Amino acid sequence: MRILIWHGWLLEGSGSNVGTARIAEAWRAAGHDVALLCQERHPERYPWIDTECVLDGDGPSEVTDRRGRGGVGRCVLLRPLIGPTLPVFVLDRYEGFDDVRTFLDLADDELEVYLRANVDALAAAAEWHRSEFVIVGHAVPGPAIARRAVGAGGFIAKVHGSDLEYAVRPQERYRELAREGLGAARAVLGPTIEVLERCAGFVPEMRHLARVVAPGVDVEAFRPRPRVEALADVAERLAIDPDRQRGRPAGIDTSVERALDARDASALDAIGATYAQDVPEPDAPTRLAASANGTAPIVGYLGKLIPQKGVALMLAAQHEVARETEALIVGFGSHREWLAALAIALRRSDRTALAWLRTVGDMPIGDVHPPGDAQRPVTFTGRLDHRYAPGSLAAMDVVVVPSILREAFGMVAAEGAAAGALPLVARHSGLAEVASALESEVGHPGMFSFEPGEGSVGRLAAGIDRLLSLPAAERDALRAGVSAFVAREWTWDRTAAAILDSW
C-alpha cells in the first residue's frame, strides 16, 4: 500500500515524534511504500529512510537517494518548505528554525501562512506519491490541513494529547480548527479511551469515528538488562558521542547555586540559554559509569524537563523515601536549572530556599522535610535519545511518571516496563489506563500508581517505598510480568497493523 504520513516536526524528542518514526519503520518493513512529511534534519540517523527530498507546492526537489539499506518496502522523507516559523506545542529549540513559537503565540495571519504551506505540500505529495492511505498527527493542525489538501473522508487523524492541552483547550480558534479537521476524518485514533473522550468533549461530532489504537514499544531495544551492563554500555557509547561537548558543563552548578542563594529567578532562566540543551551533558558518561557500580536502588525519570511533567515531585519524594536511593534524571528542557536548584536545596535541607522554589518556581512540592543526614544523590544526564534510553531505563529499579498535565498514554511507563523497570505513574488521564493494564496483568491493583494532587509527594514516596520494599524474588517476578505483557500487547508491529485496519 502507498501510505502518506503528515507529521509537522522531528522524529525524536517527544512521544508523537518517536511514534511517527516507529510506525513508518514498521510499515516499510512490512513492504509498504511510505512517504513521510516532517521537518527531520538528520535522515541519515534512520536506516529505514531510503530517500529524502525538499517539498513545496510544486512537488519534491533536491532529492538525496539513500537506497541499498535493505528491506522490501520504501520510505521517502519529504521535508516541506514552510517558511521561517515553526509552531510547536511545547517550546524548545529546533534545528533549522530560528523562529520557534507555540501555537498560542501565532498571530492569525502567521497561522494561516503555516497552514497554507502545509496544505500545498500535502496536496503535492499525495499527487506525486499517488497515495492510497493518508494519516495525519494531532487534533490540530494535521486534520484541518488534510481536509483542505485531500478532502473529507480521505484521511485518518491520530490524536496525541499535547494538541488538546496546549492548543485546543486554551484558544477557540484551535477548537474551530479541530472541528474542521476531525469531523471530516475517516477515523480518529487515540492511544486510550480517556484521550478520545477528552477530544470528543471539544469535537462531539468525532465521537462515532473514535478508535483506540495503543502505541508500541521497540521491545528488541527496551528489554531487561543487569544494571552494571546497561549503564556501562550507555556510558561507553556516550564517551564517543561528539554532540555531548555542546551540552551543559558541570561547572554551571556553581552559577545555579549563586542564583539560588540570591533568589534570582531571571539568572536561573538565563543559564539554560548558555549551552545546547538537546544533547547529552559532557559528564554524563562519567556519572553513569559511577552509577553502574552503585548499590542504592535507582529511581529514575525520562522525559522533558518542564513544569508540567512533575519532575520536581519526584525529586522531593526521593527525600521522603525511607531508604537511600539514587535519582537518575534523563532529559532536557526549560526547567533544567530550576530542578538543579531544587536538588541543591534538598541536599542542603534549606527550607527557606525550598519555600522560594515552591512559590517563584511554581513547584507543587508541598512542605518538604528532607532528612539532613540522608544521602540522596541525583544524576542528570541531559537528553539521551533512543540510542541510549533503553539502557538507562533498564538500569532503573523504579521509573516514575509524575506528570501533572493530562497525558494521552505515557510511553515512558510502557518502555520502562519493557526494560524491566517497575513503573510508578500518577493515576489520572491516559496514565491511569496504562497503570491499570499493567496492574491487572500482575494481579496487584494500585501497585504501579499513586493519587495526584495535594500531598502527592508523600504518596509518591510511599509508592517508591512500596516497590523497593518487596522481596527481591517478588520484584523480579513483577519485572518479568510487565516486560512480557508489553512485548505481547504493545509493539509497533501491532500498532501499525491496527492503524491500517482502521482505514
Describe this structure in words.
By secondary structure, the protein is α/β, with parallel strands linked by helices. It folds into 2 domains: 2-213, Rossmann fold (3-Layer(aba) Sandwich), CATH 3.40.50; 227-489, Rossmann fold. It has helices at 15-29, 108-129, 142-150, 162-168, 172-182, 193-202, 227-238, 252-261, 265-271, 284-292, 311-318, 336-347, 351-360, 389-394, 411-418, 429-442, 456-468, 472-489, 492-502; strands at residues 2-6, 33-37, 51-56, 59-65, 74-80, 85-88, 99-102, 133-137, 156-158, 187-190, 210-212, 298-302, 326-330, 378-382, 398-401, 422-426, 449-450. Helix 6 links the parallel strand 10 and strand 11 (210-212). Helix 7 runs antiparallel to helix 10 and helix 8 (252-261) packs antiparallel against helix 9 (265-271). The longest helix has 22 residues, at 108-129.
CATH topology of the largest domain: Rossmann fold
Task: Provide the CATH superfamily of the largest domain.
Answer: Glycogen Phosphorylase B
Highest-level CATH class of the largest domain: Alpha Beta
Percentage of residues in strands? 15-25%
Largest beta sheet: strand ordering: 4-3-5-2-1-8-9-10-11
Total domain units? 2
- Which sheet architecture does the biggest sheet show? 9 strands, mixed
Rg, Å, rounded: 22 Å
Per DSSP, the total helix count is: 19
Label the overall shape. globular
